[in-house]
Structures are given as C-alpha cells and as structure tokens.
C-alpha cells in the first residue's frame, strides 16, 4: 500500500522515508515510468542521485521498463510517446547533483560572467593548489603583519617547530564553510559566539544556551542522587547517618538548580562547593546491600558532576571575560585570513581555468539565485521546465545542495519528491546533514500542512530474524537524546521477505573472544597460538566460517528460487575501519579461506609501494638516509645487514649516500675478497641505475620514469612472484595511474609528487588498493561505509569492540556546522592552554552527533544481511562485560537509560546491553540475567564467549577436516640398497598409461575443437579416424624449442590475426550503456593506444565500419537495449574425460578445457551465445565461404555452449557466429 502511495501521490512535496530493503529504487523507477505512461516527458523531470553509478543504473532500469511497456501496449499513440521518451532518455536530467550543476553552468555561465572554458580538477590537483596558494598567502601575511596579529594566530594553532597547525585549520575550515550556501556568512556567525556584549558572561547568547544544558545535566544528576537518598532512608537505622548526608547533598544540588543562573560567580561558587558524601561503612547486611546497589550509580553521578565543574566552572566571570576577548580577537583574525584564502584560491583556479566540485555547486547556486533579470529568468525557466524534482538518498545532502534544489523546484504547491532513510545517513565526514531530513520528517508528518510523508517500512531483503534483531537493538538504544531520532513504530523494520522457505531458519550469533583467557592462561596452555585479542577474534571468525561449510549450510538463492550450498562469495565481513586488513588476510590464508579486500586503507604502507616511494625520494634527493637504506635493503639492490654495516663503517660520519660514494670512488676494493667484490658489483649497478633514473626524472615525465624503473629493475615482475602477487602488481599499476593523473593536472615534477604522497599519508588519506579478484568465490572484506547499498546472504559484523573515532575533538579547535567553532586559547605569559567554554560545549555537541552517526553506521551494518547475521568482538573479561551490560539494563523501561547509552564507545556494548534481556541470553547467563523484555517480537540469539582453549579444540577439529597434505616420512637411505631386484624394478619402471604422458591435462578450445564439430560426438566419445583406420592423435606436446621473443622477430605489417584480436578487444571494451557511434569507437581505440594496450599500427587497420554494422544489426541493437544482461569475454573451465578426447588413454583422469566466450546474454528464457569471427570471406563465393567458416568453428561453438550450459544450469537456445568481414549473422545448429 505504501509503495503504491509513493508511486502515485503528487501535487505537493513528498518525503519518502524508506527503511533498509524497502525497494526505494524500484519505487523511484516505477514512479518515473507511471508518469511517462501518464503522458509526462522524461526530460521534464529532474532526477538527482548520489553517485554516477546510481544514475546510470536508474537510466538503464527506466530504459528497460520503457521498452517492456512499449512491447506490451497496443495503443499506437502511447507506443509513439514511449518511443519518443526512449530517444529523450539519453539527454534526460537523470544525474548526480554535480552533473546537473555542470549543465547549469555550461548553459548559463553568462549570468555571473564566468568564463565557460574551464575543466574540472581532480582531488590531487585541488589539494596541491590549496597548499601552494596558502604558502604564498602565508608569506605575504607574515610580511604585512605590522600589529603581530597573524603571528599570534599562527602561534595559537601551531607548535614551536612548524606552523602547519594553522595550515591544517585553514584547509579544514575551508571545507566546512564551503558546505554552506553562504560561506562568508557562516564564518561571520562562528566568530559572533565569542563577542563580549557586557561585563557579565551570562549576557552572551552562547552562554545562555550553555547554561540551559548545564541545568538539564544538574537535574539528571539530582534525580539519580535523590533515588539513592530515598533508598538510604528506607534502609533503617544502619543507614540513618548516610541517609542524612545524602539528603543534605541532594538539597545542595536542588538549591543550585533553583538559583539565579544570571550570576556566574555565585553559580561557580555553589558548584565548586559541593562535596559528595562517602558511602556508609560497616559489616551489617543492610550496609552491604545498599553499597552494592549504590556504588556504581554514585560513582557515575559524581563523575558527571565533577566533569561539569571542570569543563565550565574553573574560571570566574572576570577571567572568562578576558579569555573571551582574546578568543574573539583570534577568531576575527582567523575569519579575515580564511576569507582571503578562499578568494585567492578561487582566483588561482579561475586563472588556470580549473574548477573543483565545490565550485560547480556554488556557481550553479549563484546562477539560479542571481537577482538580475537574467538570473530570475533562469530560475523561472527551471521551475517551469521541471514538473517534478526527484532526489534520491536525500539523507546525504548538505545545506548548499538543498538550497540549489529548492531554488529550481516550485513552491505553493511544491513539486519535490525526496527519498531516503535518515537511519542510513553515514557520511558526516562528507558534510552530509541528516538534520535536513529530520526537520522535513517532523514537519511533513503533521496533517495540518500541505506536504506529505510516506513510510516504506517493509524489508524485502532480510529474513525475519535479522529484522527482529535490528529492531531489538534500536528499540533500546536509539531516541532523540542518543540518536537524534525516535525509533518509533514508523522506524521499525517490517518483515516483507515472505519468499524465504520455512525450512530456512537462522538465529543471530554473537561470538566474543575472551582475551582474559589468553592473559590468565598457564605457560603450558595453548595461548601461545594467539598473539593478541585481534588474533583471537580473527581465528574465531575463521573457525566459524569453516564450521558453516562443514555443517552443510545452505542459502536461499532468490534468482534461482531454491536452496543451494553455501559459497564463499555469500559471506561478507564488515568492519568500521580497514586498519587491520593485512592481519585479516594473513589469518584467512592460514586457514585456506579465499578473501577479497575492498577499500584497503594501507595502500601507501604496502611493502611494494613503500619501496617504490623510497626510490622516488632518493631519485629526487639521494641525501635521505632512511629512504636510501630502504631501497638498498629491498630486492631492487638486495644488500643484507652486513653489507649495509660495512658501507657505514667505511665512512662513519655524514649522510649514508656519502658513505656509498666513498665506497664507490675511494675505498680500496679487495677483489679477491668475494664479499667486497659482490658488494662492489651491486653498488656499481645501483648507482648507474640511480644516475639514469635521475636524468630521466629531469628530462621526461613521471609516468615514463616509473615505467622505466619497473622495466629496468624488474621489480614489477618480482612482486608478482611474492604472496598476493597479482594484488601487489596491481598496487604498482595503481601508483602508475595515480602518477599519470597527477601529471594531467597543472602540477609537474617528481618533488611535487613525492610531497603530495607524503601529505596524503600524513592525513591518513591513503589511496585504496585496487582489488584483484583472484578467486570470484571469495569472502568479501569491506568497511561498513563501503557496504552501503549492498547485501549478502551471511554478514559478519567484526571487530565490534573497536572504539569510536573522536579524534577531531582532541585538537586545538573543534568545528561543527551548527554550533560553530571552539578553540583553545594560549596564555603565553603563564604558559597555559585554556579550552574555551565554547570548545567544551561544542565537544559535547559533537559527541552526541558522533554517537548518532555511529548508531546509523551500526544500522547499515546489521541491515546488509539477507539470511544470517553474526556479530563478533573481543573483551578483556567475560565476567566484567556481562556485569556491565546487565547493570545497564536494570530497568523496567524498554529504552535503556540515556546515560548508559551515551557512555558507550563501541558497537559491542550497545549490542551486549540490548541482548541481556532476551530469553536465550537469560537462559545461558542466568547469574547476570536482567528483566525479560515483553511486548516486543524477540529474535533467536546465540551469544557465546570463546576462550583460547575453545579455539585450540576447534583448531584440531578443523585441521582434521581441512588438511589435505601428506607428511613425508623420514627413511634411512641405507635400507634395502642390497636389494638388486627392487633397484632393477625401479630402473625398468614403465608408466601404465604412456599415452597420457604425451598430452597435457590442460587443453585450449582451439586445440580440440574438431572433436566437437557435431554435438552428438560429446555423447559418443567420438574421435577422428584416419585412412589407415588409426585414431588421429590430438594430443598437445611440449615443443623442443621456445617461441622466439617478439623483439627478435622482424618488423612487419600487422597480421590479420593481430587485427582480429584488436577488433575483438574493441567489441569487448565498448560501453553498451550508450549509443555506439563512429566517434565512440574511435575514442575507444585512441584510449587503448594511449594506454599501450593496442599497437598504433594495428589500431589503424581496425575496420570501424564492420563494428558499426554489427551494432546496427538486430542482435547488436538487442545487446544495446539490454546491456546489463550481456556478458562479454567470459572465461570458463570444463572437465572432460581424457578417454573421450584421446581413446588410447587408459586412465579415468579428466582433461581441463579452458576457453573464453566472446559474448552471451540472457533474456527471459532465452540464452544466446555469440562468437565474433574476422575470417576473410571471398566476395565471389560468399556462400561457400560461410560454409567453410561454419565447418571450421562449429566444434568450438558447441563446446562453448556445453560449458555455458554447465555454468548457467539451463540450455543454450541460440548459437551464432557474427562474420565481421561481411556483416552477416550465422546460426550454428
């Protein structure tokens, strides 16, 4: 019902709050389709998506839906309308917001007098340009700093050694301000928080807000203290004295709450005068019971009160005024400098005719909001043109983007259709503002206003237990106080995936490694197999994955609509950070579990990239000891520690490079000494290479230098032979690509590139590794952020005890879009650093926002699971963890106390608290049991703590199951030497199946294709018979000589086979999501030539007309209409009995057949196999030529078909050859 409402409702602004798995994309597409069917033109809609991939997917889904509808309808007028929409779709406004902004600027640049000849910078160029602009501006500011204010600003935010602290602040403040529609206005506002309006700090607007929060905190402390006092009063005579003390304490706090909050000094005095009474002492049972009840509560409320006093009431009114005035002076100077930097940076970009993505948004906003006649005309034209403004992932936009969209939308009535889920807003670091969604959600649910809120609560992705577990957690931990929104009935996940069969029943598992079992174990216990808690947790995860397979776990395949055995690719490991990726990969390798890593955060820390960066550093400047030592020790030079020490002994002082030169030029080499001779040879070669690389760095570009290094050193090939070789090689290729992207910017040179990489590393902005999928059947490892929008049958939320990141609250300043900026003021006279009230206040606000964000991240993680959810973590002590969780849930309320929830610093504590009141956990851990929850559908949960001993037991079990290796036995070489018969038998041994030794166990399709000319031969084990009635040997032999290298071959014109291969490559690489034109094909050829994939001579021989003819054919048009259904260059492997290929073979072994299918695609019940052929067909005898080609390739196509049927599990309905030379499609029977 809700989905229909979201598809059909119109005439006002609509906000669709779509929970995880509710099918929001399908709803969006269907809404667009229904509008088109109703007569709407697709180019009268503005559809804004979050990513380019989402925009492309939406276009394709709309295209497919239009084509399907066109084929279904009978009305000629509607058919014509739909066909017209198909033509308009490529130019429709379905794009990212940046792309829409770009279109605005390209068309209306004249409104703001902007030069339209600009390009878009990438992040690399933008970062480098910012730093250069700041460096120039900083020097000017130092020179013009007559009043010393800039120097004071620099000293306040930097340390004694460098002024990088101010640079970091300027660059971060630039990002914050730029996310607002009016950056200068926002900057002015943050300075106003420090403006002193009188001699009383309580008159400041900021202080009034602060004191409201102070009073709220005091009331909460008072209520807790009153509860303890009442408990003491009820304890009778043994607690009488304690009760009197507590009552006095409660009265004192109540007096503060009721006092005049306009007198700062009086308030400060009262708060600092509070002294908390001690708990009663004594051996009486009543005292013991009371202390057990009150101890933790007392400690918490005292800690909260003392924290309040420490943060806000250390200084009196006069001291505060002095600090505020100093801070205001700093802020005004900072805002002035920040505005200068923003202007200089923009000017520099305009000079270079280069813009970044932020500029696109700001310039687009300036155009649509311009108050000139031209500007108003543009705004009116957009409002008239777009009948609806559709925004996907609305929870992730920022105020600047919101202002742009509302400017082009209509008002009274509104025509915005916004879809999203605020519970999945996890991009605060990209300046996303979930508050925009929350505000509309609260406003639109009011019936007394024109706009509408629609709830999509049904989760069509996950099984019931996943929904129930998610609801269990968030019902107890999320509300407006901790989470920014209520997890009310509208927010609950509703089970909608009714298609799962009843026999699929999965509980949710919580697996926790008890690190105390490792630390408290005896010396002789197996604790030595586990190095730390992370290692213990990872081994626990690996064991559980192996168990899932050993248990015969099945998953429900939604596409096939049946149960099937679990595959590695069904499993995803999600974690908050990629910091321990390398350890995870190493652990899984030990257990033989294939794993694919996405979004690694250790790119620059990988060995191969670190070595290459060290080499680039010394090419630029060899007088850098650490990089030089790294290169010398690496496989590029290969010195060991003794050789490194020998070089330094020769010249003990100065740079290490000087010691190297001394050894090369002055040291008397003893060539009779093998050690010295070998060292001299290595150093000679290295210095020669270094000299050549330095020359190349000065005369050529960076990418040529890198490739020459790869080529001369052989390092690219070397790392390919290391563990994870393909990944390591891919990392080096990624470095090459990054260098190429750097040089395509306006920055050049090795020094700048090295400097840029260092900046990236220092700011923890590593490039992500380019994942190499060495095994499609592998467990997926990714961050929770990287998993958004994805789903997996089984999800492990790992490392759940990992602490939340609050590093941005620990520096000399804190920034918040709403609260502004808080700073630390340095008192250089008294050598003090004083945190302003504003800073402490904003830290508190940021903590609340951080907790809300982390709750949303947890929600995303849990809702990625389709069928089973497994949470893993580690604790120092099982007993301590259970006690803490049980204490937090000692309440009759469904919602856990806000204090308890807000003091959490990891996912595991939230989850642990929430499951302590479920029947399964209460039964398992009865001594810690809390009150059982009622009135809530409870999931099946298995919570288990694992010890070192448990893992050792599992290790032995899994070793028995998974071990396939056979240990070699030690024998005595003297045994049986006198047994001549045995020796003779060994020497005269003949292999029982000699013909099997004359072929390989691996064959390519082209080598055996004649065996399969007729499909029936597959069943008849047919082999060719010669005239002499002997079976023709089809075996593949190893040749006696190696193939001549390409560089030794004579230079000649491109061969037809090379041109054919190149044509295949173009057909493989072309993007089927766009129209294939001559320009598109030529661009692709140029791209492949530039990337050195195609030889230029071969590229010139490619017949573009033959490719165009194919895509104009019926089959080509079918592929373009259904690009997502097309699979190209699909590699396969097929096992066939060796006897069927080579009848003289006696054994039952199989032969592995390998091939690559050019293309196949699935449509409805059709499976179409296509193979391109570039064979020449004589013009005068076309029919004979076609027959000859069919005869030549029929066996190959039939073998492809058999392989494809095995892969897909269904028959191939059609098999075709497309003869490119004559543009003819030929069906193979």
UniProtKB/TrEMBL annotation:
Listed cofactors: Mg(2+)
Keywords from the UniProt entry: ATP-binding, DNA damage, DNA repair, DNA-binding, Exonuclease, Helicase, Hydrolase, Isomerase, Nuclease, Nucleotide-binding
Pfam family, one: PDDEXK_1
Catalytic activity, reaction form: ATP + H2O = ADP + phosphate + H(+); Couples ATP hydrolysis with the unwinding of duplex DNA by translocating in the 3'-5' direction
Residue ranges constituting the UvrD-like helicase C-terminal domain according to the UniProt record: 490-789
SUPFAM superfamilies the UniProt entry points to: P-loop containing nucleoside triphosphate hydrolases, Restriction endonuclease-like
Domain UvrD-like helicase ATP-binding: 1-463
GO BP term, example: double-strand break repair via homologous recombination
Entry's Gene Ontology molecular function annotations: 3'-5' DNA helicase activity; 3'-5' exonuclease activity; ATP binding; ATP hydrolysis activity; double-stranded DNA binding
GO cellular component, one term: cytosol
Coiled-coil boundaries: none
Residues at which ATP binds: 18-25
EC identifiers of the protein: 3.1.-.-, 5.6.2.4
NCBIfam families (UniProt xref): addA_Gpos
Family: Belongs to the helicase family. AddA subfamily.
Subunit and partners: Heterodimer of AddA and AddB/RexB.
Record function comment: The heterodimer acts as both an ATP-dependent DNA helicase and an ATP-dependent, dual-direction single-stranded exonuclease. Recognizes the chi site generating a DNA molecule suitable for the initiation of homologous recombination. The AddA nuclease domain is required for chi fragment generation; this subunit has the helicase and 3' -> 5' nuclease activities.
Protein's UniProt name: ATP-dependent helicase/nuclease subunit A
Source species: Pediococcus stilesii
Classification lineage: Bacteria, Bacillati, Bacillota, Bacilli, Lactobacillales
């Amino acid at each position: 019902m809700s989905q229909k409402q979201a598809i059909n409702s119109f005439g006002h602004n609509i906000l669709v709050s779509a929970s995880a798995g509710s099918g929001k994309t399908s709803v969006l597409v269907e809404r667009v389709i229904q509008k088109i069917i109703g007569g709407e033109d697709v180019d009268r809609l503005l559809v804004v998506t979050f990513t380019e991939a989402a925009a492309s997917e939406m276009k394709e889904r709309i295209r497919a839906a239009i084509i399907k509808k066109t084929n279904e309808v009978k009305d000629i007028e509607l058919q014509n309308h739909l066909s017209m929409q198909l033509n308009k779709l490529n130019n429709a406004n379905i794009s990212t917001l940046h792309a829409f902004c770009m279109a605005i600027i390209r068309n209306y640049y004249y409104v703001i007098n902007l030069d339209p000849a600009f390009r878009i910078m990438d992040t690399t160029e933008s970062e480098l340009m910012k730093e250069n602009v700041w460096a120039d501006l900083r020097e000017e500011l130092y020179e013009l700093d007559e009043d010393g204010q800039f120097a004071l600003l620099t000293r306040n935010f930097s340390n004694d050694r460098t002024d990088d602290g101010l640079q970091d602040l300027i660059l971060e403040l630039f990002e914050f301000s730029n996310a607002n529609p009016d950056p200068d206005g926002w900057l002015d506002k943050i300075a106003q928080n420090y403006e002193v309006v009188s001699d009383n700090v309580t008159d400041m607007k900021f202080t009034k807000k602060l004191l409201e929060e102070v009073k709220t905190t005091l009331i909460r402390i008072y209520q807790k203290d009153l509860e303890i006092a009442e408990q003491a009063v009820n304890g009778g005579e043994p607690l009488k004295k304690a009760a009197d003390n507590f009552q006095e304490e409660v009265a004192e706090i109540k007096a503060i709450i009721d006092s005049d909050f306009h007198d700062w000094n009086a308030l400060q005095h009262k708060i600092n005068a509070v002294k908390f009474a001690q708990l009663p002492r004594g051996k009486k049972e009543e005292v013991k019971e009371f202390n057990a009840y009150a101890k933790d509560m007392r400690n918490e409320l005292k800690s909260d009160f003392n924290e309040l006093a420490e943060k806000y009431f250390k200084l009196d009114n006069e001291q505060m005024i002095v600090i505020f005035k100093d801070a205001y002076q700093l802020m005004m100077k900072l805002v002035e400098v920040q505005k200068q930097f923003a202007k200089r940076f923009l000017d520099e970009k305009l000079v270079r005719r280069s813009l970044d993505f932020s500029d696109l948004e700001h310039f687009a906003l300036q155009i649509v909001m311009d108050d000139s006649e031209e500007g108003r005309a543009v705004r009116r034209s957009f409002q008239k043109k777009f009948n609806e403004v559709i925004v996907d992932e609305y929870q992730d936009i920022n105020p600047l983007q919101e202002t742009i969209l509302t400017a082009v939308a209509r008002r009274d009535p509104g025509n915005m259709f916004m879809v999203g889920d605020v519970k999945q807003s996890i991009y605060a670091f990209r300046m996303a503002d979930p508050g925009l969604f929350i505000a509309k959600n609260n406003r639109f649910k009011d019936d007394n206003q024109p706009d509408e809120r629609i709830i999509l609560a049904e989760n069509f992705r996950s099984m019931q237990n996943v929904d129930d577990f998610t609801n269990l957690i968030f019902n107890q931990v999320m509300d407006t106080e901790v989470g920014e929104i209520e997890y009310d009935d509208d927010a609950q996940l509703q089970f909608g995936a009714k298609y799962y069969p009843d026999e699929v029943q999965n509980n949710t598992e919580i697996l926790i490694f008890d690190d105390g079992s490792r630390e408290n174990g005896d010396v002789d216990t197996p604790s030595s197999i586990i190095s730390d808690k992370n290692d213990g947790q990872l081994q626990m995860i690996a064991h559980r994955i192996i168990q899932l397979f050993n248990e015969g776990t099945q998953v429900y395949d939604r596409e096939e609509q049946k149960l099937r055995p679990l595959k590695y690719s069904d499993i995803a490991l999600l974690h908050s950070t990629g910091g321990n990726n390398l350890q995870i990969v190493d652990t899984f390798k030990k257990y033989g579990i294939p794993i694919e890593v996405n979004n690694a955060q250790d790119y620059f820390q990988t060995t191969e990239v670190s070595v290459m960066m060290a080499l680039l550093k010394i090419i630029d400047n060899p007088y850098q000891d650490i990089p030089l030592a790294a290169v010398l020790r690496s496989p590029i030079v290969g010195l060991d520690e003794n050789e490194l020490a020998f070089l330094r002994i020769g010249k003990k002082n100065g740079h290490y490079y000087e010691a190297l030169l001394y050894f090369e030029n002055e040291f008397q080499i003893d060539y009779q000494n093998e050690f010295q001779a070998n060292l001299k040879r290595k150093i000679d070669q290295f210095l020669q290479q270094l000299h050549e690389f330095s020359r190349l760095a000065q005369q050529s570009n960076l990418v040529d230098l890198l490739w020459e290094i790869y080529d001369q050193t052989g390092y690219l090939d070397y790392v390919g032979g290391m563990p994870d070789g393909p990944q390591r090689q891919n990392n080096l290729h990624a470095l090459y690509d990054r260098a190429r992207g750097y040089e395509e910017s306006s920055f050049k040179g090795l020094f700048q590139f090295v400097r840029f990489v260092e900046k990236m590393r220092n700011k923890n902005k590593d490039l992500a590794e380019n994942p190499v999928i060495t095994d499609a059947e592998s467990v997926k490892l990714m961050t929770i952020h990287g998993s958004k929008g994805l789903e997996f049958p089984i999800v492990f939320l790992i490392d759940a005890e990992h602490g939340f990141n609050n590093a941005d609250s620990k520096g000399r300043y804190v920034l918040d879009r709403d609260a502004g900026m808080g700073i630390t003021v340095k008192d250089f006279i008294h050598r003090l650093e004083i945190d302003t009230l504003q800073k402490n206040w904003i830290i508190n606000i940021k903590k609340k926002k951080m907790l809300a964000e982390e709750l949303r991240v947890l929600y995303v993680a849990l809702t990625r699971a389709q069928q089973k959810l497994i949470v893993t973590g580690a604790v120092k002590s099982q007993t301590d963890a259970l006690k803490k969780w049980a204490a937090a849930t000692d309440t009759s309320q469904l919602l856990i106390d806000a204090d308890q929830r807000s003091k959490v610093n990891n996912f595991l504590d939230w989850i642990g608290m929430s499951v302590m009141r479920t029947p399964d956990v209460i039964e398992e851990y009865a001594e810690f049991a809390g009150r059982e929850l009622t009135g809530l559908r409870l999931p099946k949960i298995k919570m288990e703590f694992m010890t070192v001993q448990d893992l050792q037991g599992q290790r032995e079990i899994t070793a028995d199951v998974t071990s396939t290796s056979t240990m070699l036995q030690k024998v005595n070489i003297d045994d049986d030497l006198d047994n001549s018969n045995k020796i003779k038998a060994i020497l005269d041994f003949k292999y029982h199946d000699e013909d099997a030794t004359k072929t390989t166990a691996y064959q390519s399709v082209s080598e055996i294709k004649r065996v399969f000319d007729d499909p029936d031969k597959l069943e008849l084990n047919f082999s060719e018979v010669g005239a002499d009635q002997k079976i023709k040997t089809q075996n593949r032999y190893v040749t006696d000589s190696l193939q001549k290298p390409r560089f030794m071959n004579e230079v000649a014109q491109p061969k037809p086979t090379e041109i054919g291969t190149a044509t295949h490559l173009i057909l493989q690489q072309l993007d089927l999501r766009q129209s294939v034109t001559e320009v598109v094909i030529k661009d692709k050829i140029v791209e492949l030539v530039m990337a050195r994939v195609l030889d230029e001579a071969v590229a010139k021989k490619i017949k573009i007309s033959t490719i165009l003819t194919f895509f104009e054919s019926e089959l080509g048009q079918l592929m373009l209409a259904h690009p997502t259904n097309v699979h190209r260059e699909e590699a396969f492997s097929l096992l066939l009995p060796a006897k069927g290929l080579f009848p003289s073979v006696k054994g039952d072994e199989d032969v592995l057949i390998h091939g690559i299918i050019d293309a196949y695609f699935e449509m409805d019940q059709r499976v179409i196999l296509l193979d391109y052929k570039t064979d020449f067909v004589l013009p005068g005898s076309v029919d004979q030529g076609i027959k000859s080609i069919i005869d030549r390739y029929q066996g190959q196509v039939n073998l492809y078909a058999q392989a494809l049927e095995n892969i897909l599990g269904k028959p191939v309905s059609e098999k075709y050859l497309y003869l490119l030379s004559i543009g003819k499609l030929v069906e193979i029977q």
